[in-house]
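Hi R.,

Here's the input for the zinc ion complex you asked about:
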Amino acid sequence: MSEDSAADLKKKLRQMGYSDKTAEEILKWYTPMFHKRMSFVKGIYVLIISVNKNITIRVGALRNITFKKGLYAYVGSAQNGIDKRLMRHFQGAKRKFWHVDYFLANTHTKALKAFYKEAEKHEECAVAREFRKKGFAVKKFGCSDCRCESHLFQFDHYGLLEDLCLKCGLIPYHLASESLHSETSEA
Ligand SMILES: [Zn+2]
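And here is the predicted structure with zinc ion in place:
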């Protein structure tokens, strides 16, 4: 966990009425436990990305692609742990490896939220096919190792995106700080 998200978590705990000392104690045991649990979840995910103006980005071997301002959904698979992969997307990758790393490195793009599902890699393309039916495909993006048209789709409405995720059996992914908040509120 980065220092930033640990600080957010501490801030949230203080807003919930915990003293600094207690918040630090909770952070000590909670953060590693949460990450240990999520790092075992292998699955597929949909990352919702916003683009705040029309931009042209050089996307690795795909060369220059123009992205219109709007909302995008990226369908991916993380068989080595969802948590690790999503943290990479939300915090920025040090080395660009996937097409989405190039996309997210631009200052006008932002990973907003994610949905996930415990699943084998082959389900990734089945989800991409569902998204293709309702969204506009950014050709060849994120599908170097499969036969899909794309794994990145542009959408006009957030509601449609959320409905599609739920229809495909994906549930909202909560960052560590959000998860702590909701679990504590329910207790
Ligand atoms: Zn595919």
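One thing worth noting: The chain has two domains: 3-39+176-186, 43-172.

Cheers,
M.
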